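Project channel, design review

CF: Before we commit to the Microbacterium aurantiacum constructs, I'd like one complete example in the thread so the newer folks can see what an input/output pair looks like. Taking Phosphoribosylglycinamide formyltransferase.
RD: sounds good, go ahead.
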Amino acid sequence: MAEPHPLMFDPDDPSLARVREIALALPGAAEKVSHGRPAFFTVKVFCYYGGAAKADMTRRHDEAVLFLPDPGDAAALAQDPRVWVPAYLGPSGWLAIDLADAEPGEIGELLDASFRRTAPARLVRELDARTA
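CF: and here is what came back for Phosphoribosylglycinamide formyltransferase:
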């Protein structure tokens, strides 16, 4: 039996609290620990908190969000110098940004897009109904 991954975050981290507030406000969202890091999901994960860049897996990004961008925004985001490709998830189209580099409101927009790509249609409709 494999050993569980050690926790790689502080549960009381105020940056995690900020991400948690945004992520858990989405319909049907829940939190779990996956590979030692917080993961936010409905049926599929739409956000991880913290990770490492594919280019330098020795440097941890403990206060970052990993997200699945809207396909229409992916190319532009990939060219943004603040955005990086996360280890393991990058080949599946995931990107990441450190919270310190994000503009106000940007994390909410990125998580909204990632949620829409991974959540069941009924939860996306529920989200749309909230903003209508």
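RD: helpful, thanks. Helices lie at 14-24, 71-79, 106-118, 121-131.
CF: Residues 14-125 form a domain with the Aspartate Aminotransferase, domain 1 fold (CATH 3.90.1150.30).
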